[in-house]
Amino acid sequence: MKFLLADDHALIRCGLISLIQQMHADWQIHEAEDLPSIEKLLQTVPDMDLLMLDVQLPGVEGLSGLREIRRQWPELSVIMISSSEEPGLIRQCLSFGASGFIPKSTSNDVLGSALNLVLSGGVYVPPAVLYGLGENKKPAVTGQLSELSSRQLELLSMIAQGYSNQEIAVQKNLAVQTVKNQASAIFKLLNARNRIEAISIYRSINRHNDHLM
C-alpha cells in the first residue's frame, strides 16, 4: 500500500505518519507540503493508493487542489483532513470527488476505521455531520439520536450503507456477536424492530436534516 500525506505543517505530518505506521507497518508512506510537491510525487509514483489531503494548502484557492488532483488522477482515493467540521465544506469536498473527510480532532480508532472503509471502496463521513449534528447541534426531528453514542452513530451509518454484521466486524476489528449486540441496542433506542426499520429511520432523519441545513 502506497500512501501520500499532504499537509503544510511538518508537526502534523510527523504525528499522522507515526500513527499510521503503528496501524500499518507495511505501508510505504510519502509526504508533501504543497500542491506542486503532491503532483511531482504522483507523477513519480503513479500507483499511489491513497492521498490524505489537507483542505488548506498554501497557494491553493479553495478546493481547486482537490479538483485538479481528481482531474489528473481520477482513480486515486482522496481523503480530506481539516480542523473545520463545517457540514457545508464536507458536502462540497464529497461533491468534488473526495472519498472521505476526517476532522483533525478525530480519535485514533476512528481514523483507522475511516482509512479501512475508504480503502475497501466506501466513503467516510463524520457521524456527527452525517446526522446533522455538526457544530454541536442535535436534530430537531427526533430526540432518539441524542441517546446514541458517537460509536453507535458510526455503526448506524455503516448499517445504513448496507454493511453486514460480518463486514462491520472486520472493519471495526470486533467480534461479530459484539456487532450484533451493539446493533440490537441501537434498534432498541430507535424503536426499530430490525435493520430495515433502522435504515428507514436513518434515511428520513438524514433527508430532514439536509432540508434544514
Give the name of the CATH superfamily of the largest domain.
Response regulator
Number of helices: 10
What strand order characterises the main sheet?
2-1-3-4-5
By CATH, the architecture of the largest domain is named: 3-Layer(aba) Sandwich
Question: Could you provide a short overview of the structure?
Answer:
With 213 residues, the chain is of the alpha/beta class. The protein has 10 helices and 5 strands, in the order βαβαβαβαβαααααα.
Structure description:
It is built from ten helices and five strands; from the N terminus they run βαβαβαβαβαααααα. By secondary structure, it is of the alpha/beta class. It folds into two domains: 2-108, 3-Layer(aba) Sandwich (Rossmann fold), CATH 3.40.50.2300; 134-212, 3-Layer(aba) Sandwich (Rossmann fold). A five-stranded parallel sheet has the order 2-1-3-4-5, with helices on both faces. The longest helix has 18 residues, at 195-212. The chain starts with a strand and ends with a helix. The model is unreliable at 133-143 and 208-213 (pLDDT under 50).
Indicate the topology:
Layout: E1 2-6, H1 10-23, E2 28-32, H2 35-44, E3 50-54, H3 64-72, E4 77-82, H4 87-95, E5 100-103, H5 108-119, H6 127-130, H7 150-160, H8 165-172, H9 176-190, H10 195-212
Helix pairs in contact: 7-10, 8-9, 9-10
Observed structural traits:
213 residues; alpha/beta; Rossmann fold; five-stranded parallel β-sheet; 10 helices; 52% helix; elongated; disordered C terminus
